[in-house]
Amino acid sequence: MPRINLAELAEQSFGTSLEQLDDRRIYKLLVKLVQERSAACPLNNGKKKLYYISAEFLIGKLLINNMIDLGIYDEVKDQLVAAGHDLNKIEEFEVEPSLGNGGLGRLAACFLDSIATLGLTGDGVGLNYHYGLFRQRFADNQQKAVPDEWLGEQDILIDDDHSYTVEFGDFAVTSKLVNIDVPGYGQPTKNRLRLFDLASVDEGLVPGSSIDFDKTEIAKNLTLFLYPDDSDEQGRLLRIYQEYFMVSNAAQLLIDEAVERGSNLHDLADYAVVQINDTHPTMVIPELIRLLTTEHDIEFDEAVTIVRSMVAYTNHTILAEALEKWPLACLQKVSPAIADIIVKLDEIAKAEHDDPRVAIIDEHDTVHMAHMDIHFGFSINGVAALHTKILEDTELRPFYEIYPEKFSNKTNGITFR
């Protein structure tokens, strides 16, 4: 890579000296520099690719992080200091992507960084939330939740021409895709965070001063908010629609890319592995089976075997009541085809293990998403040593007795470099 000359870039971009540029224009200059350097990095391109599917990616501000990863931070900082500018103040103009909320989102971000730094082939896959969770405001000594309008000011999303149709029970929607580059620290290569959006999304459903919106307009609201309120039936249905939209796009992308790399799909597990980060992406299991059987003429039993050897699950909680579960009737409304496959998977699990504690569908016709992950994934991990031990000894003990070889620990919150 050629050496950086910020003074020359300032003249080319703004027709003035670096010393005379204000901090906002310097920020724009640095964003352009990082984008160009990152664009020049080829993608990691191994035969087998990881798809890290997560409802959240708490990636934080990326400008400084990416400059460090690309090896240009010290050079840029020294030139700015010489011109009388403070990089810390310039960084304040960056808007933080509102794509995550807590631990599972931070874990996802850390692993994306680690995967790229190790030079492994793997992308994150999630949703492009227009308003995130919410932004907190205070007025008259009261908290008020308002939309986090970050998209209008962002500089990191890269358009991608991939688009898929996702069919629900009684209607279909079209997706569009944007990417965020994930360069590896000290690596000449990069991976990507792939964020699917709803082509027909309507921000007009959300009043500017409130996070309330019409939760029934699924074809317009799917990607407006992270974790929309699910205190009523419409909210619960919206969550399921949102989760299925995410995994259907991810599964279609995965299959397309595997075929491009040479897979005949009978050998799909040699070309792709899926990490399910918490239970929100669980429906990728039946969705992959659906696509392999209905779109690619693979027998059901073989499709189940393929998926079982390519899916892994990260658990984030020790509270059984916090493990995600949905009424089967809701899943049937969102996608009858997926609900039918879940019923078949439950029958397989019950035939293999006659213990109601490990059933996917319980006596109340409630679907336990984590149970599906454990039965039909090859690996289950906790996110801290103590957490994993509690899972093995208490909360997931019946599963640990069946599948001790599947359980392991992967400590949360560390970027391995």
Structure description:
- The chain has 417 residues and is of the alpha/beta class.
- It folds into two domains: 63 residues, no CATH class; 334 residues, Glycogen Phosphorylase B (Rossmann fold, 3-Layer(aba) Sandwich), CATH 3.40.50.
- It contains 15 helices and 14 strands.
- The strands form three sheets. Strands 1, 2, 5, 6, 7, 8, 9, 10, 13 and 14 form a ten-stranded mixed β-sheet that branches. Strands 3-4 form a two-stranded antiparallel sheet. The chain has a two-stranded antiparallel sheet with strand order 11-12.
- Helix 2 packs across helix 3, helix 8 packs across helix 11 and helix 9 packs across helix 12.
- The chain is globular and about 75 Å long.
- The model has no long low-confidence stretch (mean pLDDT 94).
Total tally of structural domains: 2
Described by the principal axes of the CA atoms, the overall outline is: globular
Listing every helix as H and every strand as E from the N terminus to the C terminus, the arrangement reads HHEHHHHEEEEEEEHHEHHEEHHEHEHHE
Radius of gyration: 23 Å
Instruction: Report the major sheet.
Output: 10 strands, mixed
Architecture of the largest domain in CATH?
Answer: 3-Layer(aba) Sandwich
Broad CATH class of the largest domain: Alpha Beta
Structural class: alpha/beta
Q: Kindly report the CATH topology of the largest domain.
A: Rossmann fold
Residue share in helix: 25-40%
**Number of extended strands:** 14
**pLDDT < 50 runs, ≥5 residues:** none
Could you give me the name of the CATH homologous superfamily of the largest domain?
Glycogen Phosphorylase B
Overall pLDDT confidence? 94
Cα distance spanning the termini: 22 Å
Beta fraction of the residues? Answer: 15-25%
